[in-house]
Amino acid sequence: MGYGASLMAAWTALLLWAYRSPIARAFVAPLTILVIYGLAATKVAAVVSGVIPTGRMIPTCRITRSAPRAVRVRRQTAGGAR
Fold this sequence. Notes:
Elements: H1 2-20, H2 28-49, H3 58-79
Helix pairs in contact: 2-3
């Protein structure tokens, strides 16, 4: 549990840092997507191996499907009106 809490705190700090200058730090968005997809892949592997029930994976899948849309919205917002 301690490792997870420190990882979440560090990632939150990274996202807050990127929020202050979104254009200059745009590389953080693809990193975030990689982390979300990695978490989803880990949950799929856990379900396939029988470690967790399928119902525990559903919230992560919902986040994974909305991640690319969030990045598109963020890019449109950061780019300004054209």
